[in-house]
Amino acid sequence: MLEKIREIFAQVDTAPIESAEQLEQFRLAYVGRKGVIADLFEGLKTAPPEDRRAIGAELNNLKNLALNKFAEGRDRLETLQAGVAQPAPVDLTLPGYPNEVGAMHPLSIVRARIVEIFGRIGFNVSDGPEIEDDWHNFTALNFPPNHPAREMQDTFFIEKNPDVVLRTHTSNVQVRLMENGKPPFRSIMPGRVYRNEAISARAHCMFHQVEGLYVDRNVSFVDLKQTLYHFSREMFGKDIKIRFRPSFFPFTEPSAEIDINCLICKGSGCNICKHTGWVEIGGSGMVDPSVLQNCGIDPEEFTGFAFGMGLERMANLLYVIRDLRLFTENDIRFLRQFGPVS
Ligand code: DAH
User: Fold this and answer.
1) Cα–Cα distances in Å, from 332 out to 97, 105, 161, 313, 320?
2) How far is ligand 1, taken at its centre, from the CA of residue 263, in Å?
């Protein structure tokens, strides 16, 4: 009988428990009430009485071995199944993670250059909300309620509250700046604006402007012209030509549109400049006295100029981008072309 017990010892010792089936087989063969070890205990009753003690001790050892091995196998399989098993083996031959360097978005490059150029001549940067009330987007800027000038800009209104709009221009920040401070103001205000336009290569419902405001004693149209001339030369190169075209904005008087000569065809005519050789980059003018008044500034004492320019328009000219949709599509093949983050 001892012989038999040793044989089973060896079997229990080497029996594999690597799966649920093997665990069950092991249980039936060695641990269960109908297994070999239970049989051996049964046989103990017929063993010679003088041998019973020794055989019994060996049998108990065998039983404990089987129980321990069963419990250990069951626990191991359970942890494996719960997914907290040993860490996945590391494959040291795999290549490392590439350290990809991003690129600046072309609009971010343009904005950074504008901020830098104006910063050097004493303009700081101001910010304002994109969700705006009627006063700051329109009324304070001399757009009377129901005035047709409001139709110049297709506005997104909130249906339940027509007093709330997505700002149609960055001019709202001018108002907030003047309401909350005292002259002199010398600030630029870059930001996102919204208009209810169908998206195409030439129009978008979301785009970017940079507003400028200079209010102090004795600010004149000469200052406006010289500032924007200086800016254009810094931004587009020393050979740039700039022209001011008389125009109308409710918040400036007089008003002028700002054109630069077409960088793409250099004046010979192309579809970007509609064969005129000139491209409009924004609007400008002397701040209307009633706007100053609306913001609590005495127009007898202070004068100012303002301008608003399109960032996309400038990026189009600098990088020869012909489709506005490219700016928001996030196509990596487009974005990669604008150099690494500096
Ligand atoms: N807000 C105007 C627009 O979006 C642009 C503009 C024109 C801004 C003249 C100004 C300005 O500050 O003086 O069309």
Assistant:
1) 19, 10, 39, 21, 17
2) 23
